[in-house]
Design brief:
mainly alpha; Cytochrome Bc1 Complex, Chain A, domain 1; two-stranded antiparallel ribbon; 54% helix; globular; metal ion binding; Peptidase M16 middle/third domain-containing protein; metalloendopeptidase activity; Peptidase_M16; Metalloenz_LuxS/M16
Length: 158
């Protein structure tokens, strides 16, 4: 899902299958460009357009949440703005954006539940090896120093 600061990926379920799910997600992300077709883009655009048009008939609490986001975020695009941009969106635009995402990004990982510290490190390694992130640029233009820190938190029921 997208957030105001980026994207989030939630993986949950049976912990003995999480590695398989994560590996499949990484593979799908790597093969994104080869799997994206003009027909798929048209279907996704139509679905997103319908969702954006339906925004105006959402329940009042959803409008309130949108209003809260609008106040808290520095830049918030209205559904009308997004619909306008969606009209001209092309396959080439999406592929160029995908390349920009892969160019530089920051990765934060939280692993919790029935997972050992060794498994958590393995999941982090899978993501880092699969996505190969480059550090984000700081405001001065220099690459920020990234750290691979693992902070183990342990909670056990009494």
């Amino acid at each position: 899902s997208t957030t105001r600061l980026g994207a989030e990926l939630f993986l949950s379920g049976y912990n003995h299958k999480l590695q398989n799910l994560l590996e499949r997600w990484i593979l799908a992300f790597e093969e994104f460009e080869s799997n994206l077709t003009p027909e798929l883009v048209d279907r996704l655009k139509a679905k997103l357009e319908q969702e954006l048009q339906n925004f105006f008939v959402y329940d009042p609490y959803q409008h309130a949440m949108y209003g809260m986001d609008e106040i808290l975020m520095q830049v918030k695009y209205t559904p009308q703005d997004r619909l306008e941009v969606l009209k001209d969106l092309t396959l080439q635009d999406i592929l160029a954006f995908h390349q920009r995402i892969l160019c530089r990004f920051d990765l934060e990982l939280l692993v919790h539940g029935n997972v050992t510290p060794t498994e958590a490190k393995m999941y982090a390694t899978l993501l880092l090896d699969g996505l190969k992130p480059k550090p984000l640029l700081s405001s001065s233009g220099a690459a920020s120093s990234s750290s691979n820190a693992m902070i183990p938190l342990r909670y056990e029921r009494q």
